[in-house]
Amino acid sequence: MGKRKTKRKPMAKRKLVLDTHFDCIFCHHEKSVDVKMNREDKVGNLSCRTCGAKFQSKINQLSDPVDVYSDWVDAAETVKPEDAIRLNNRDIDSEEEDSRRYVRVSPGGRSPNYGEEEDDDEEDF
Residue 67 maps to which CATH number? Predict the structure, then answer.
């Protein structure tokens, strides 16, 4: 006669939880995009904490935050290429203007012409 086998308790199944924080497609920061679902108004709001990008889409009872995020990605891909080129050119122009405003500083912390007087007039011969 053998001992009766004990019965184990069944393992609890882990519930799969979908994220509500995502990576931003514009500034590329990780987990900086929050999605909030307003089920009463049937609207999903998405916003990036870093760059301030915002998006809003309609939702239904079956929608999840990942659905609002995927709608945002799809909407960003359908932007006209001319608009994207114009935005990129504007960013390049602003970078050139920024580089003109700043003075190059040597590793010692002073500008290369520290202590020298600037003469904007023509040099005397």
Answer: 2.20.25.190
